[in-house]
């Protein structure tokens, strides 16, 4: 066999082995997993903390920032009814969290919203589920430095607190990191999940980042 050809084959083999080793590192080492996570983007990035010309919110969007802003809330239905309409099993919390009441489900196209609410209507917990990605509007964008990579069991996820708001007299939307809007996103078994907590109710003050991750880990599909 030609010596140059043998040398070339060995070079390709060595390069292939190095690629395999790098992929293994990405999967097996904490540094590699962190690098892999940095590539994932469950939230749509905003280039700045101020954004001009966002479309106006509807009345429904103003009342509930986590609701789709292009249409009023859909009617409440049961999870079983929603499953028949979308064709996949819907996850719900095995126990209603303290301070909340279970409302039911709403359907937005092929996205299901499982909803909980405080008795005084001042706090909401909403779990969106879809097989086709996240239901988003321009208001859902998040500055990159406001996204926190998290783990939900063995799954990669992302958490953020804040939202874009338009202050009185302003013509641009400004990112408000202290807004009472917390969102957690992840993908499991082909289902895209977003858990959102909104509102100022003391009854749901305990649902911070750790509390929401704990709820996400407890999600179960009914038998």
Description:
It is built from five helices and 14 strands. The protein has 223 residues and is α+β, with helices and mostly antiparallel strands. The chain has two domains: 1-39; 44-221, Protein Transport Mog1p, Chain A. A hairpin with a 5-residue loop joins strand 5 (111-117) and strand 6 (123-130). Helix 1 packs across helix 2 (30-39).
For the record, give the distance between the C-alpha atoms at the N and C termini, rounded to a whole number: 63 Å
Give the second-level CATH assignment, the architecture of the largest domain.
3-Layer(aba) Sandwich
The number of E-state strands comes to 14
CATH top-level class of the largest domain = Alpha Beta
Indicate the percent of residues in helices.
25-40%
CATH topology of the largest domain: Protein Transport Mog1p, Chain A
Please describe the structure with a list of short key phrases separated by commas or semicolons:
223 residues; alpha+beta; Protein Transport Mog1p, Chain A; three-stranded antiparallel sheet; globular
Which helices and strands appear, and what pairs or packs with what?
Blueprint: H1 3-28, H2 30-39, E1 45-46, E2 50-52, H3 59-63, H4 79-86, E3 91-92, E4 101-108, E5 111-117, E6 123-130, E7 142-143, E8 148-152, E9 155-161, E10 163-165, E11 172-176, E12 181-188, E13 191-199, H5 209-218, E14 220-221
Parallel strand pairs: 1-7
Antiparallel strand pairs: 2-11, 3-14, 4-5, 5-6, 6-13, 8-9, 9-12, 10-11, 12-13
Helix pairs in contact: 1-2
